[in-house]
Amino acid sequence: MDETAGGTRPGKAASTIPWNVQDEKSGTLFARRLGRGLLWTVVALAAVTGLRSWFFPDRPAPAPPPVVKSGPDYPTDAARAVASRWATAYLTWDEKNPTARQTALAMDMPSDANTALGWDGKGRQSVDELYAGEVTVLQHGQARVHVEAHVIANGGSADQGNWLALDVPVAQTHGRIVVSGEPGIVGLDLDSVTVPTPSPTQPDVDMSQQTKDVISQFFTAYASGNASTVAAPGADIPTLPKGFTLASVQDWNVDAGSGANRSGTAVIKWQTAGGTIEQTYRVVITRVASASAQRWQVSDLHGGAY
């Protein structure tokens, strides 16, 4: 029987194909290509970003400045007040009343402090004048107050007194200032010094002559307590203490310049306490105009040449 017709050819196995080849739809092909393109775009961006960070690294944001918390300023006014009161008690003693000094000292010292503070209980001394000066702030609430005092020994008169300086140690504790230990008497700094003289101001001679009577009238009224009657409107000039009378205007020079407010220097001689004393003032005069005329009046002054 011939098996070549409709049968299997001898010597060759039958051919078998497990799938069928089909044409890919256009939408699927586009989606695949789009996804592939997006993937490569991301890879490219990552590569570029990484390379840029190698050569141009991001600089970190500057750190904010540190916050410095400062404590309250040292109470120097309170330190001066306590040191003044305590130094007055410390420099005052009377052998007839020895406990008075200790009682006064205890007011500004810790409760367990020794209030005798080295005095042997003999003699007599009092304080005529006392002034607290520089406060040197130290660590841990400690400070040192420089005090200058005029003391009189053994009931003498004021002209027999002696000036001395005292460094008083104080401490800030529990909301108050106390004296923390024994003081020390130190020398007074009375060395001769010089002060730079300000450059002289060029005077306006004509203006000085025109307004000298204004200055004389003002200081006459100033001594009598009636300065407001001759001062410029709105001027606030405190009344001079009683006991002064104008003896003379020694000198009056208006500074060179212009305008409705001018400044000048007045040298005044006051009569007081049975004698005379010379004083220097800086004076501001203001031009005051009315319907019929204008005049210069004093609007401000202070003591000193500048």
UniProtKB/TrEMBL annotation:
Q: Which residues cross the membrane?
A: 37-56
Supply the alphabetized keyword list. Membrane, Transmembrane, Transmembrane helix
InterPro entries documented for this protein: TcpC (IPR024735), TcpC_C (IPR035628)
Instruction: Respond yes or no to whether keyword tRNA processing is given for this record.
Output: no
Q: What is this protein called?
A: Conjugal transfer protein
Name the species this protein comes from: Streptantibioticus ferralitis
